Amino acid sequence: MKCPECGEDTLINDPTTNQRVCTSCGYVDEEQLIDTGPEWRAYTQRDRLNKERIGAPLSDSIHDRGLTTRLDVSSKNRYISMKLKRIHEKTRVSNSDKKLVTLLSILNDQSAKMGLPDYVKNTASTILRKLVATKAANRIDKNTLVAASLYQACKINQIPRHHQEFKDKFSLERNEFWKAIKKVQSIKQISPDLKSKIKPNEYIPMVNTSLNLPQTVATKASQLVEKMYEDGMSSGKGYLALSAAAVYLISTLMDKKKTQKEIADALNITEVTIRNRYKDIVGAFDIEVKI
Fold first, then answer.
1. What is the pTM of this model?
2. Of the residues 6, 100, 160, 203, which has the maximum number of CB atoms within 10 A of its CB?
């Protein structure tokens, strides 16, 4: 901005005097400027951190992401304020958002019951939003869709959870659950950031802890599964079952053997699944186990 008095480009805003002045000739261009800063003063960084405040952050787990206005019931004109509040609540959710509101309500409730962290819930919320937006959520049970979204969100955030846990928690049919998972996984084609990032060796600590085996077993089993993952030999195989089979094999080789039934019961999977993955590992690395 140029000074109207001397023509120099030296106008500045002086927050101390709340004026716009020219540093060249001292001309006061404007007084009583609007102060856009906070109403409080802070002299140290600690003071600033203590006094700074802001509203709640945006959240995908709320259908309007938290950008809403709430009307309180006033003690004066109570009837009118209650009526306005009811009208506001009705108009707050549009017809197109009703399905999303229902899905997010189920999601918030179930994720809390399962003890999942907020960032997993937010990821699942993003998945549900995209499913509703693309109309991929049609003709699928709401509980099944939420369970599939939470399962995929755990895989995206590298939290080892078995799909059986979600099936049992939501009391789901196998075919319906896998149908919903396919719908959820189709979202990664339009949103690459929603691809699963979990690796099979991330299930090893959970398996090892469930069986109360020494850490040396987990270390060797993790190396074995990581090698299979790098060589593409884990493709199409359940990561939990593959990890369980690796732990079974290593524990046998290190004379800390657990039976397949013990492992299956501890992880809520079948002995047949563990046996098949065990054969895959032995065949892939040409391992000979003598018992």
1. 0.69
2. 203
